[in-house]
Amino acid sequence: MPHPVMFDDADPLLVRLRSLCLALPEVEERISHGRPTWRVAKQFAQYGGGERTPDGHVRHDHALLFVPEPGDVGALDQDERFFLPAYVGPFGWRAVDLDRDDVGWDEVAELVDASYRQVANRRQLAALAEL
């Protein structure tokens, strides 16, 4: 049984995130588990997810899930804006809600770029350097 779609294509946060992700070399968008994801050889970004808390599962429908640079994980974990997303958090992923007032799009673009660089191959990275 397929997952239900858990996003709206007209969501302005999704539209903006989608444009950042698809501007990177060789990126394709796929729907996985009812959510938009972006990948090259591997997935590097997802829109929407959840968080496990002591009280249960909390949905974050407007979150960016991403693969941070290893050296940034400690700082992200100390920043209250970021959280460990359910399912992929144990594999190094982090997340941030894009509808927060204290999250800017320059920062989001940097997170997307860094996440892309974690999974892209040499050819894709070379193409990125030419942009």
UniProtKB/TrEMBL annotation:
InterPro entries: YjbR-like_sf, YjbR/MT2646/Rv2570-like. This is MmcQ/YjbR family DNA-binding protein.
